[in-house]
Amino acid sequence: MGFNLEQKEVLPSGLQRIVSELIAEMHTGLRDASVQEEAIHQTRTGCKKIRALLRLVKGNITPDVFAIENVRYRNISRELSLLREAFVFVETVESLRAEVAQPVPAINTLLEFLTEAYNARKAQSESSPAIEQALIQIDAARSSLDTWIPSHAEPSLFMRGLAVTYKEGKKRMRLATEEPSSERLHEWRKSVKHLMYQVRIFIPSQPEALSPLDASLQVLSDLLGSDHDFSALAHFLLDSAALQPAELDELLPRIARKRIHLQEAAWMMGGWIYHEDAQVFANRLISFWARWHAF
Fold first, then answer.
1. Which residues contact 114 (CB under 8 A, 6 or more apart)?
2. List of residues 6+ apart from 245 with CB closer than 8 A
3. How far apart are alpha carbons 144 and 30 in whole angstroms?
């Protein structure tokens, strides 16, 4: 059925189905060694989606249960992070190379270095226990769904969750605007992703309004994600011996300029998304769902 609510589903049972399907997809993917890289990405994304939905019902569970489940899905993702991070570095440098009019030797040197590192990690991952450990955690996650997904809940619970997520993203955007550090921008991106995945399950209730919002949240997430990737790449270059000093002097300013452009685009998109009161935003989404559900 996908990552959407069905028209006649009540919210708790819809949430239960969506999360159960995500867990099943993650488990099946990681069991298939022929698509390991794709499965790792799918699993990490699935964990982010579930953590966003966990926040949607946070008001209905104890802080201890929330912490346990949030850490569980975070740890599954972290178990699988090394190979994915190596791939992202390669992808980031390739995107930088695609934007330059003339070949830049430092970029080519760095790409060769990172590709070798990625291939080495990929070979290591074939004998790594990380996937088996992730599968054990996924099985535990499947068994614990009843501890946090409510069997009965009023729409107001989901309304509160949406409002809290929207308000958090709005606050983190303001903090990142005041001080655009890598840490604050990354925290803002987390909130953007939480809101995006929460909005996404409601899209069928009013696709004309929510599909454009979802697309805008995706763009904003991608902008902030690219900024984070370039920031991580710059820190890696400063801490590693991948390039000579002269090559660093050539490449780091390019990365800094790229980050400025990404952040400027993010401020514009964020201003459009986070322009209203959080409660008004949440009320509108739940109203869309209520009318659609009752039809």
1. 86, 89, 90, 93, 242
2. none
3. 20
The DSSP secondary structure of 220-264, one letter per residue, reads: HHHHHHHHHHHHHHHHHHHHSSSS-HHHHHHHHHHHHHHHHHHHH
pLDDT tens-place values along the chain, 295 residues long: 579 999 999 999 999 999 999 999 999 998 886 667 788 889 999 999 999 999 999 999 999 999 999 999 999 998 888 778 888 999 999 999 998 878 889 999 999 999 998 888 887 776 678 888 999 999 999 999 999 999 888 999 999 999 999 999 999 999 999 999 999 999 999 999 999 999 999 999 999 999 999 999 999 999 999 999 999 999 999 998 889 999 999 999 999 999 999 999 999 999 999 999 999 999 999 999 999 999 8
Rounded Cα distance between 60 and 11, Å, is 13
CA dihedral 198, 190, 252, 247 (to 10 degrees): -80
Closest to 110 measured CA to CA, from 233, 294, 223: 233
Tokens 């609510």 label which residue?
Answer: 5
Contact present, 157 and 150 (Cβ < 8 Å): yes
C-alpha torsion angle, residues 203, 167, 221, 102 (rounded to 10): 140
